[in-house]
Amino acid sequence: MRAAATPPLASGILTDVGRQRRVNQDAALALDLPHGGLYAVADGMGGHAAGELAANLALDTLSQHYLDGRGPPAERLAEAVQAANLAVLRHAVGEYVGMGTTLMALLVDRGAGIIAHVGDSRAYLLREGELHRLTDDHSWVAEQVRLGNLTEEEARHHQWRSVVSNGLGGEERVRLELFGLPLRAGDRLLLCSDGLSSVVADRTLLDLLLRPQAPEQAARALVNAANDAGGPDNITAVVVDVLRDQRLPHYTLPVRQGDGPLYVDVLLSAQRGSSPLTYVLLILAYFTLLGVMLIPEQRGVIALLGAALLVGVVVAQRVTRARLGRPPPRPAPIRAAYPEGEPQEARNSSG
Predict the structure, then answer these.
(1) Partner of 43 for a Cys bridge, out of 102, 128, 285, 310, CB 3.0 to 4.6 A?
(2) Which residues sit opposite 40 in a β-bridge?
(3) What range defines the domain where residue 172 resides?
(4) Domain co-membership, 83 together with 218
């Protein structure tokens, strides 16, 4: 009898009210898909009922719109985020005026992960003993740090550290970050609300994620650590393990922009635009064919040279694609052996 194939992914999901809140305004999603899964965390804002509604409404709309959508997965994810934004915005009336939510979504499609990020919930990647923070917070203090107006230490204790500068439900067009990275067997990804990331230091996150335990147990350990540290906010953790290698999808992964979140229509226009590689290949093919026609006595050499150039361009594009998908170099990864001193990170609490 043939042994069953190892599933490509395993996930664990847990959300908790914390020690100091009466209502849980966080929500989480884990949705199995034919070639991967869709995972998300939302941290609601705007009062007890409003924040809870915003978070759950956003994730319900995100999942349904993605399932109903058509087209390349990255575009479908961005469109689903925009649909979630409009759903929150249109329900922000009456007693729910001013409600909103953060959104951190991870789409795993075969051997790739695509991140859609709005707000100050975070995504981390544990790879080969190093913890990479994949996202930067969309908050006032984080922006001041990026501009050089505040240090990391000043941001940690700033009176406006809880002010989120971007979220769903704020305006008609959502601003988001959208980027992809190749995944490989042994990777562990964490999506979390700031009730975890602002309370538990990165080096403790690393220690907990390194433990050889199932994703469900890892999520529980992370939530317990936040509660042990006082549990001042709602806590949500989604842990996703990549169990085996899969081929990359055929499309080019979206590249992380250096200017922070962009309006969704700008991102979609860039994503749908024709690839420069297509133009290069067409030009090479055209001149190769033209050379064969104009210099028939050298057609063998010209055809060979044209083919070599075409192959070289394709190989270079694949190498570039792989490099663009690597975890971003900032901030520096946290390793198992730590230097002395506490890590410096901003504390952002959105709800």
Answers:
(1) 102
(2) 29, 105
(3) 9-273
(4) yes
In this structure, the answer to whether residues 288 and 151 fall within a common structural domain is: no
Cite the DSSP H helix spans in the chain.
48-68, 73-91, 140-147, 152-156, 194-197, 202-210, 215-228, 264-272, 276-294, 299-324
Say whether both 302 and 226 belong to one domain: no
Q: What total of structural domains would you count in the chain? A: 2
Distance spanning both ends of the chain, measured CA to CA: 53
pLDDT digit string, tens, across residues 273-332: 544 555 565 676 767 776 767 787 777 877 787 677 767 655 655 554 444 334 444 445
Closest by alpha carbon to 152, among 338, 337, 331, 329? Answer: 331
Q: Tell whether 24 and 160 lie within a shared domain.
A: yes
Dump pLDDT digits (tens) for 225-254. 999 999 999 999 999 999 999 999 999 999
Residues 262 and 285 in one domain: no
Instruction: Read off the tokens for 206.
Output: 């690393």
Residue 52 within a domain = yes
202 and 318 assigned to the same domain:
no
Distance of alpha carbon 9 from alpha carbon 188, whole angstroms: 10
Angle at 278 between CA 275 and CA 279, to 5 degrees: 100
CA distances for 27 relative to 164, 172, 177, 193, 196, angstroms: 18, 22, 20, 9, 13
In order of 152, 273, 282, 283, 291, the CA distances from 286 in angstroms are 54, 22, 6, 5, 9
**Of 42, 43, 90, 38, residue with least CA distance to 66:** 38
164 and 102 in contact (C-beta within 8 Å)? yes
